Each structure stands twice: as C-alpha cells, then as structure tokens.
Amino acid sequence: MNCKICKTKNISKDAIVNLPAYNLNLCKDHFIEWFERRIENTIKEFHMFTKKDKILVAVSGGKDSLGLWFVLNKLGYNADGLHIDLGIYDYSQKSREIIEKFSKTINRKLYIIDLKKEFRAIPEIKEKLPKKPTCSICGTIKRYYMNKATKEYGYNILATAHNLDDEISVLFGNTLNWNIEYLSRQYPVLMEYKDAFVRKVKPYFKVTEKESAIYTFLNGIKYIEEECPFSKGAVSLKYKEILGIIEGQFPGTKIKFFNNFLKKLYPLISNKSEEKEIKRCKICNEPSSLDICAVCNIKMKLNI
Amino acid sequence: MNEKFIFHIKYRGKIYTLTSEKERLTSHDILKFLGLSKEYAFVIKNGEITELNTYISPYDEIEVINAVSGG
C-alpha cells in the first residue's frame, strides 16, 4: 500500500501505518507529521496551554508518557518531567532508570518522588491493606502527589498521557454503571481551582494506544514494555479488549464514542458554573472533600 | 518427514519460539500465535514496522510490540 499523502505529490512510497478510522495509509515521515499535528490541534482546540505555560509531564516510563514528554518539547512547549517511583520491585527500578536516561537525552529537568521515602512502597501498602484494590490506592496516591508537586515546584499545568483507549475504557465502564458523577468529570481539561488544584490536561486523548506506541517506536524512544505486575486482571484491560473487537469491525467507533460523549452528553451533565467550597485536610492541608484526605487516611491505617 | 521452520519472536523482554511447517508466515500469523489483537499490537521486522500481510521468514529479526496497557 502506498502512502496517501505522498500519492497526492505524485510520489510512490510504501505506507508503514494503516489508520482505518481515518481511511489513511502513511509512510514514516507523514505518520509523524500527522501525529504531531493531531497533538498540537488537540492542545489548541481545548485551550490546554500555551508556550508561555510551565508544564510538568507525569512520566511513568511507558510509551505514552515518554512520547508525550518528547512531543511537547519538540512542538516548542516548556515541559519538564515528574516521576513517582512506586517501589514495585524491578519494574519501578527499570522504569526510573529509563526515565533518568531519557531526561538527559532531551535535556529537561526531572523531579522524582520516591514513595518509599515519602510514604511506603506500593507492595508494602498492598500487603497491609489487602482488601483495597491496588490500582485504586496507587491512583489516589499518584493524583495527590502529582497535584502537590506541580504546585510546589512552581508549574501551573500537569499533563498526563491518557490516550483514547484509556479514556474510552473509563467512559465505557462509567456508562455501563451510569455513573453520572464520574461522567460529569471526564473531560480532557480540568481547570485549576483557586490555589487547591492545578490545571490537568490530557493532550493524548485523541490518539490510540497503538498510534502512541508507533510514534514512540519511530522516534527511537526506549520505554518500559513490561506491564505493572499489579495490573494483571484489571477491568480496564477487559474493556479495551471488547472495544478493540468493535473497532476492528467498525473502524472509527472509538474516536466517535468519545467525541460524541464530549459533544452531546458532557454539556448536559457538567457543572462548570458551580462554585465549590474547598475543604482542606486537617493533617496535610491539601484539598479534600473530607476532614482527612484519602492519602492521610491510608497513612493512618498504616500507622505512619 | 516434513521440514520444520523455527521463528524466534521477541516480545516484552522474552523470546518465544514458533515452529511451523510453512517457510514464511505473515505478521498477522505472528500476532495470532501470541494471541494478540491487531488493534493493539504490531510486528517489527528487521527494525521496520510491518503491515499485517507482510511476509516473515525464519531468518528475520522479529519483535512484537503490544500497545495495550492498563490498571
């Protein structure tokens, strides 16, 4: 198959990427160009940030976050990295080494929060709180430290690399359960709120996991391929498998599912104008809906 | 006795061995052998991304990338 863009210029070049959702076949150079334009357009369409903003990218060491950190800098944005070392055996050690090396390659500042020092490593928390789902505890802790670190280190934007597949698997789960509360908050930009929350953005939400992996591969970025040992059996993986089967039969379903949610349902259920009262955790003074925030609550259970 | 062809496939840090009576397989065959979806995974042949109908020989360096991640 020939590259569709090359063909318009009367050049015959083999395509290496097939994108059935957009009826496109692209060569390496035109795929990279297409991908970067998509990210840039997403950032602009949703007013995520400008070149004047100070952005902190949450980097796990996976294909999405390293690719996002790379592309933001390539597009001329001012983006440094934040890594939370979860202390998950070799997996965390390898991830950290890859990120440290990568930050030197792109010559950007990297902040590391070592959970073993700040708190407890994830395996230890799992052992002490076996009834709580590990991914849920890990997510709570990561969100807390990411918001706190972004403020403390003097950045105004926190960028995460959630991709289209991540977003639609969450959307699918929330829709199956008609969880209106969660659906009303599922938006690619969560605006800053007073001095409590920084702005959180998801510039990758229109690209699939496969598109993201191809972009990272084509740019020669080394990333951790192993999955987190605690993610086995996660419901989100099952949802992705199901949605992948539908996409295979009806290309374009995934992007339409999310785009139409944003266009048709989200405006009906979001509470943008509502002035919320922000409470503070009595222990750490971070924003919390309860007297004691979820992270301090976990710490109390662990006798920290 | 039929000749057997051995394909070595690198996937997530491990090497998998596929024994086949066919002298060449497609990228799609490799994904099916590993039980991976073409919606999420792709095959790298000698450092280049392949299409699903690309032929792979036992002498090629084969790596599979599965993009799916979650938790």
Characterization of this structure:
The complex is a heterodimer of chains A (304) and B (71). Chain A has 304 residues and is α/β, with parallel strands linked by helices. Helix content of chain A is 49%, strand content 10%. In chain A, strands 5-4-3-6-8-7 form a 6-stranded mixed β-sheet, sandwiched between helices. Chain A is globular, with a radius of gyration of 20 Å. Chain B has a single domain, classed as Ubiquitin-like (UB roll). The model of chain B has no long low-confidence stretch (mean pLDDT 94). In chain B, the strands form 2 sheets. In chain B, strands 2-1-7-4-5 form a 5-stranded mixed β-sheet, covered by helices on one side. In chain B, strands 3-6 form a two-stranded antiparallel sheet. Chain B is mostly beta strands and 71 residues long. The longest helix of chain B is centred in the middle third of the chain and has 8 residues. In chain B, a hairpin with a 2-residue loop joins strand 1 and strand 2. Chain B is globular and about 45 Å long. At the A-B interface, helix 8, helix 10 and helix 11 of A face strand 4 and strand 5 of B.
Give a brief description.
The complex is a heterodimer of chains A (304) and B (71). Chain A has helices at 4-8, 28-45, 63-74, 89-106, 115-118, 122-128, 134-152, 164-176, 180-183, 209-218, 235-249, 253-269, 294-301; strands at 17-19, 24-26, 55-58, 79-85, 110-114, 157-159, 189-190, 199-201. By secondary structure, chain A is an alpha/beta fold.
What key phrases describe this protein's structure?
heterodimer; A: 304 residues; alpha/beta; two-stranded antiparallel sheet; 13 helices; 8 strands; B: 71 residues; mainly beta; Ubiquitin-like (UB roll); five-stranded mixed beta sheet; 1 helix; 7 strands
Number of helices of chain A: 13
Radius of gyration of chain A equals 20 Å
Distance between the termini of chain B: 47 Å
Strand content of chain A: 5-15%
Q: What is the helix/strand order of chain A?
A: HEEHEHEHEHHHEHHEEHHHH
**Largest interface here, residues on each chain?**
A-B, 36 and 19 residues
The CATH architecture category of chain B equals Roll
* Strand-pairing-aware structural class of chain A: alpha/beta
| Count of helical regions of chain B | 1
Strand arrangement within the widest β-sheet of chain A reads 5-4-3-6-8-7
Query: How would you describe the oligomerization state of the chains in this entry?
Result: heterodimer
